[in-house]
Amino acid sequence: MNLTLVFLLLAVTAWIYLRAKRSEKIIDELHSALKGRKRLLLEESSSNIAYRGLVELIKDANALIDDISVTDSQSSGLSKQVEVTLNAIQEAVFILNEQHEIEYSNGSAEQIFNLGDSMKTLRLEAIIRSPNLLGLLADHERNKNSNMKQISIELGGEILWFEASCSKISRAKGAQQTENATLLVLHDITRLKQLEMIRTDFVANVSHELRTPLTIIKGFSETLVDDHETLSDEVKYRFLGKIRNNTERLHLLVEDLLTLSRLESQPDQLEMATHSLEKLLMEVQESYNPRLSNEQTIEIIYDAKIEPFGFDMHRINQVLDNIFENVFRYATGFTKILIDARLTEAGDYVECKVSDNGLGIPEKSLPHLFERFYRVDKGRSQEKGGTGLGLSILKHIILLHGGTVRAESRLGEGTSIFFTIPYQKTVVEESYVD
Hints:
Layout: H1 2-36, H2 46-51, H3 55-88, E1 92-96, E2 102-105, H4 107-114, H5 124-127, H6 131-141, E3 149-155, E4 158-172, E5 178-188, H7 190-226, H8 233-265, E6 273-275, H9 277-288, E7 297-302, E8 309-311, H10 313-330, E9 336-343, E10 349-356, H11 378-384, H12 390-401, E11 405-410, E12 414-422, E13 431-432
Parallel strand pairs: 6-13, 7-9
Antiparallel strand pairs: 1-2, 1-5, 3-4, 4-5, 6-8, 9-10, 10-12, 11-12
Helix pairs in contact: 7-8, 8-12, 9-10, 10-12
């Protein structure tokens, strides 16, 4: 009997052990499912699971896994939408950890600062060297005032300007821990800065250009009024001539400024029509022939392949006038002006070259020749009555046509101005053809 009881106890113990092992296996599988966020699919029969009292636990666990999967899917979709949005904007966006390591950078940031390559895990200081930006981040980290600031960054030998702003991001690090990150946004305002500098320089130059003739007019007119009884008729006549010359200078300056303003504010106001460029060149030649001395000539070389095509005749006439006026004013000693018009090799542009054999222009002045108010010889230019805007107007007109302009010169050999016009033969609004 004692032996029977022992066997019975062993059998009960084995049964309990096997049941415990099977329950433990199910619980281990449930634990793995929770960790892997995958629904639990047991090989055990439903009756065995129910027998062990695990049905409700498994149902709840699978429901929790389903909820987590839905949440993850929604979060992943939202993250992708946010990333697509950030990559679509022009601002450079960075997310930095507390060590200034880049955890995220959008497409604009990578394009501006790293030629389109990823910057993840790199330190911001290794990519962007800017004391102003580091100062902004330091103020932000010390909870000081770090509102949007304008900063300059040197990149590839060029100074870029940005409006920079920082924001703190708190995110979960563990079950009950959070860590701080920094959202850095850089808005490129380089173009605006350049325009601001151009405007400032323009205002300063205009003020200077207006001041000189106005001072002369004021001085001579006051002298004529205050001393009219003591001045001889010859002196009065000379003073009036000075006043008239400087009044004309003011008039030309204002006209050129208005022309520039119209070209810049109404870039679509070109009156495009089909014209004969050859006929226009011949008319320009004819209008300037009376100003030539006996040893001076104007010659035209015209490519016979150029048929009438579309351009603004008035504006191109203005381009040629500005070039010719420069030659007559500044190309001292010239004996020949050559106008050479021909199709480019591809046949899509007409290139015009206007050359003289005068004194020429120093090489250092060539890059600045088409800038507003730029003068190669300021004293001689003012003496000759130029406004310093003629070649700038020329450049605007050619760019509006979709062409290009450049200059070549050698001291003592002369100067050549090149400009191109798109060769479009389909413009038929108006004709100016032989």
